[in-house]
Every structure is written in C-alpha cells, then in structure tokens.
Amino acid sequence: MILEPFKVPIYTKELILDNKALASYCLNNRKSNKGRVLSNDGGWQSENLYTYLQGEKYPQPISELCNDILTIAIEFARTIDMIDKLELDNIWANINGYKDYNLPHKHPNCLLSGVYYVKVPKNSGEINFVNPASGTMQYDWNKYTIKEYNNYNSANYTFRAKVGTLYMFPGWLNHFVKQNLNKTEERISFSFNVKVQSGALL
C-alpha cells in the first residue's frame, strides 16, 4: 500500500476564444509598450494589462479570457477545498521569439497562477513544472537509480503548449519555459495570478 500525503494539483482546460484576435492584441500592445524583464530571457513581456486595483471591468479584447480565468479558478479552488472567494489579481502577455525562454520562477503573494496559449508554432517551447523537492531528490533519485520516470520519482514534468489550452497551478510551484526553437514564428501567451478577495479572510 502506498500513501500519498502530498500532491501538487495542476488544472487544465481547453477554452474556445478568438485566439487570432488575442494574438493581434498582444502584438499591437508590444508596439507601444516596451515591456519588462522578470523571468523572461529574451522575448517580450508586457506590463500588467489588468490589475485588481483598476476596478471590476476587464479591458477589451481580453475581458472574456479574464472572466474564464476567474470562473476556472473558482472551480479549481473548490475541487481542492480551498477558499473560493477569489479575484483576478493581474494578467500580462508574453511573446517569445527564436531562442527566447523563461527561467525557473514562482509567483508569490497569490493563491493560483496560470498560463493561456494563443499562438504555439511547432518547436516553440513547452512549460515545465519542477518538483518542490527537486533540490535534494536528484542526488539519489536520478537516471542511475530510476528505471522509469513517473509521478512519484520525477524531478520535473513537461506539459505541451497548445493553442486554446489553459494551465492553472499553485503560485508556489516552480516552473519554467523552454526555448522557442522555431526560427520564423513567435509563441504568444498570457500569464496571470489569482488571489483571495480583499477582506475575505477577515
């Protein structure tokens, strides 16, 4: 009998949105927004396109995406028995060209984080999630001792980037994005954070 005291939840869902319009929004935004450098090595990451401080209305044309994110976050939170009084904290765009990637990082000060893909050319990089114990487990749990990698013994997991796919996960889960090795096309996505509503814990 194997007990499973600690599990890491990752929620995925396919959304039906106008991804071409969302991609155009990102590309047009890049023309007037110099962006910022956080986890990205190369590429372009926008400033926040929305934050909870701006009010209740989400900007066009990302309002439908923002509403879907919040709905999914509430479903996810209820599934894992977390508080479901949530709000979208912030959302931003990512455009990664040839050899651009994102370094391992976490999203502190939020309950849930995630990514939604609007354009994914072939060989443009996948998202990887890092086992919270990876810093020490790889000393002894490695390619020399593991016969076949699975949910119990893997130091990281790779998930496919696909247009219309959303991944949502705990903000404390370390993750990174591999290089875009497509020489001619960029990968475009949105990342976001969800937090507990202000005053919900009082």
Describe the structure.
- The chain is α+β, with helices and mostly antiparallel strands.
- Helix content is about 15%, strand content about 30%.
- It has three helices and twelve strands; from the N terminus they run E-H-E-E-E-H-E-E-E-E-H-E-E-E-E.
- The chain has helices at about 20-30, 65-80, 135, and strands at about 10-15, 40, 45, 50, 85-95, 100-105, 110-120, 125-130, 155-160, 165-170, 175, 185-195.
- The strands form two sheets. Strands 1, 3, 4, 5, 7, 10 and 12 form a seven-stranded antiparallel β-sheet that branches. A five-stranded antiparallel β-sheet has the order 2-6-11-8-9, with no helix packed on it.
- The chain is globular, with a radius of gyration of 18 Å.
Outline of the structure:
This protein has three helices and twelve strands; from the N terminus they run E-H-E-E-E-H-E-E-E-E-H-E-E-E-E. The protein is α+β, with helices and mostly antiparallel strands. Strands 1, 3, 4, 5, 7, 10 and 12 form a seven-stranded antiparallel beta sheet that branches. Strands 2-6-11-8-9 form a five-stranded antiparallel beta sheet, with no helix packed on it.
Question: Which key features would you list for this structure?
Answer:
202 residues; alpha+beta; 5-stranded antiparallel beta sheet; globular
Quote the average pLDDT: 95
What is the helix content?
10-25%
In angstroms, what separates the terminal alpha carbons? Answer: 41 Å
Q: What gross morphology would you assign?
A: globular
Give the helices and strands as they follow along the chain. EHEEEHEEEEHEEEE
